[in-house]
Automatic annotation (TrEMBL):
This is Glutaredoxin domain-containing protein. The chain crosses the membrane at residues 29-50. InterPro entries: Glutaredoxin, Thioredoxin-like_sf. CDD domains: TRX_superfamily. It holds the Pfam family Glutaredoxin.
Length: 145
């Protein structure tokens, strides 16, 4: 199991344990509601919410060809999730790189963020921007199309 799935799996397992104790205590409605809440939170914190990731080199090549920004992210990052949600359907047009799966992506982020793996880092026209405002990213995406 990759570390991208550790938090979602722990959330589902923890929710299952608590829901089981509620169900055994005679509160099956609360158990179901709590389990659904934990599954929803696990889903939001999983890689499933984000568009398919590519490698850093492939994302850079594609960005040079079509002018679209590259987003470096990692699962479980609240700021990455905020960016993904605020971009809406437009997020699929960006090139996403999961720094936990791609060492070259992690190195690119460290180079942009003074040695830290601060995400989201968005690269527009070869220039990195660490944790930019989602409205600004949306504007950059509109300019690239």
């Amino acid at each position: 199991m990759t570390r991208a799935w550790i938090l979602p799996v722990l959330l589902v397992l923890g929710g299952s344990v608590v829901a089981t104790s509620l169900a055994l205590g005679g509160r099956p409605g609360s158990a179901v509601a709590l389990l659904l809440m934990f599954v929803l939170i696990a889903g939001v914190n999983s890689p499933l919410v984000f568009p398919r990731s590519v490698g850093a080199l492939e994302a850079q090549r594609r960005s040079e060809a079509d002018g679209r920004p590259v987003v470096f992210w990692r699962p479980g990052c609240a700021y990455c999730l905020r960016l993904r949600i605020r971009l809406g359907r437009g997020a699929r047009r960006l090139h996403w790189v999961d720094i936990w799966r791609d060492p070259a992506g992690a190195a690119a982020v460290r180079a942009a963020a003074d040695g830290n793996e601060t995400v989201p880092t968005v690269v527009v026209a070869g220039r990195p921007h660490v944790n930019p405002d989602p409205a600004w990213v949306r504007e950059q995406l509109a300019r690239s199309t």
